[in-house]
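Summary for the steering committee. The consortium agreed at its last meeting that each partner would contribute one worked example illustrating the joint modelling workflow. Our contribution is presented below. We chose a case with several input lines so that the handling of multiple components could be demonstrated. No manual editing was applied between input and output; the record is shown as generated.
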Amino acid sequence: MNYRELSRKELVREYTKQWNRYLKYEEQDLSLDLSRGKPGKEQLALSMKMMDTLTSRSVLDSENGMDCRNYGGLDGIPEAKSLLGEMLGVHPENVLVCGNSSLTVMFDILSHAMLDGLLGSKPWSRVENRKFLCPVPGYDRHFAMTEHFGFTLIPVAMKEDGPDMDQVRRLVEADPTVKGIWCVPKYQNPTGVVFSKQVIQEFADLRPAAGDFRIFWDNAYCVHGLYPDDDAPLPDLLHACTLAGHPDMVYEFCSTSKMAFPGAGISAVAASPANLIDLRKVWAFATIGPDKLNQLRQVRYFKSMAGVKAHMARHASLMRPKFEKVIRVLEEELAGSGVAQWTTPRGGYFLSFDTMPGCAARVVELCARAGVKFTPAGSTWPYGHDPQDTNIRIAPSYAPISEVETATRLLAVCTKLAALEKLAAQYCVTVPSLAGAQTA
Amino acid sequence: MNYRELSRKELVREYTKQWNRYLKYEEQDLSLDLSRGKPGKEQLALSMKMMDTLTSRSVLDSENGMDCRNYGGLDGIPEAKSLLGEMLGVHPENVLVCGNSSLTVMFDILSHAMLDGLLGSKPWSRVENRKFLCPVPGYDRHFAMTEHFGFTLIPVAMKEDGPDMDQVRRLVEADPTVKGIWCVPKYQNPTGVVFSKQVIQEFADLRPAAGDFRIFWDNAYCVHGLYPDDDAPLPDLLHACTLAGHPDMVYEFCSTSKMAFPGAGISAVAASPANLIDLRKVWAFATIGPDKLNQLRQVRYFKSMAGVKAHMARHASLMRPKFEKVIRVLEEELAGSGVAQWTTPRGGYFLSFDTMPGCAARVVELCARAGVKFTPAGSTWPYGHDPQDTNIRIAPSYAPISEVETATRLLAVCTKLAALEKLAAQYCVTVPSLAGAQTA
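What follows is the complete predicted structure of the assembly.
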């Protein structure tokens, strides 16, 4: 049923039908949460043996003989540089392994750029009207961070194979106050898009107006495919930038947070030799070194890239049914309705869902009233403002699959209600139950 | 033998005697290091059972029911707030428990002050001629950090019960560009001085010209007494500042690094409610939260403040003989010489040693030539420049006690040689072996 083609009468009938469905959800006193990208309990259970990796009988030396129980080693231990380098697709010597949060590493690099400048450039805090590009929909914490640092955030459209590179190129090559861009290149948050080889090459070929322009390449989902036997390849951008003569243009990030225990993993940044020298120089003031015991724990648990893949396949087997459930429910409920579209990710933690323009906030509100929490509408846009009010991020990882199904079906019902409200307004139809819903 | 009273002839004879001793050390091909404050191997062995604290069979919830295996909890877990709060002598609600390095927490707060200002004050990066007070001798990493952030470092003399508070008061109350002071209040690095109750009260009673003046109270050695039955009391400064009407004037820091495994512990900052709100606000951009599993591991291992004390008594039993050995050797070699003095700490990781003026760099050089490494002369002063060239930091923790003895004895011999060289120059005496030593 295409909602946009309904007669007035059909519209009222459909609205009443969906409204009655909604009321039934309300009666259930639901308390479900599909708002944040946290692994579920079963996923956490997959990694419990990590807690047994280091014991009082372990030799706690890294492979280069460093005693991981004592101070030292700003770079992180060699075996962690190798493993996280392999996850990113870069050489170990291009990697620093850091603390428990890649987000913190991004923040620290931005702080450094703000206060000191990068490789001798003018500190970004002294650049008037500094700007940062934000592919949309995207990750709210990325956007909030650069907003905090006083950047004007410029939305750039996400396409099916990555950001709109014509738009990126135009902005980056014309304006020296454009200092960076956020990217989640593989299974992007929230679309699930994997950047294509061509997009990556176009990134490498950028000729930024700003000499200190940087791509913040947050490869958070590099090993988080839902279909391990058919994982998307992602050419390495650092390598491509180096070949294109711009080795310093990118910082790449990853972490083991969503591989084992979020917040208790290890993170890494990969960059050119010059960028790493620059980072080591400032971080030597901030720390004597990262938690090497946790680095040792992580590496000895995962063992190798093959070990990582085997482990992530177990995650995939828990995540895949949830994603497939979401997609099945959305298809059952909304295919052909003309009032919604969604992505079908092959990895990552999110799906991106678009309502009819002007409906997303209303949908999230209706869901919340029935006890189901989604990420606030607008979150996927800079400043939390989605100009079309269409985008909703679906995070199916944390809830059990039965709850994912219920929540998604409710989302579909609310999407229909909100769309019908809009369409009714166009017809100047008053829907009795609607009035009640808005004042309840 | 008071070197300052030697005749020319006695001086030459004494120099020759010490020079022959020095040559015997040189022949031994020593390779000893008393330069950094790292725990020794036996100390690390004390904590190996910590590696067994969390296993795959552990319930990994904090006492408030938070699953420590997943994201969340910017403040740290409640039991860690309690334990580290107790170490600092503050209420848990005044504490944030952070990552593996208290140094990083200090750096992060300074970054925040530089970029954002504190509680609405002008960002420090925009304060011309900003200054930071540095009690001397002091900790090189503190000084280097504020130098990095563009502060002019003002040395303040350390007295036997803390910094010279007349000097501190004069500087802090007259000059709004004086933004902070570094303090290690208990078993100070390197003197071992414990700040007196009166000094702490004088800190609390400061009336800074700068509204955003901050005391960086690095209580790194709060539980690191050498004589557990007779540990120095330290009144809490946050409490004193609050009573004096200046609750926001101090940040206190501690960590478990030197209690178990350096670099793999947890850190904390304690501050007023307003300061904590300010920090949470900015850190919410930088992280989803600290490594809660490591917080759980630390707290479950130490169990309680009584557990901490019992554990630290075991550290003390390893450290005390080393400190006592250093002091005994220095007394045997240098008491009454008139060319050296040293502190006799009752806790911490260091002793402070002073040569005759103008001799410290020469002493460290002579030691290094004979294979014994001390912290570079000058390190305990801002910019690495000790204007009198007298101070050397002795760090006896890492080396085995036999090496501590050898290294200290060599230090004494070199101190005598350097002093005799100076005194010889005053007599216009040429010491043949001296020429050789300087050109070797």
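The radius of gyration of chain B is 23 Å. The CA atoms of residues 74 and 280 of chain B lie 7 Å apart.
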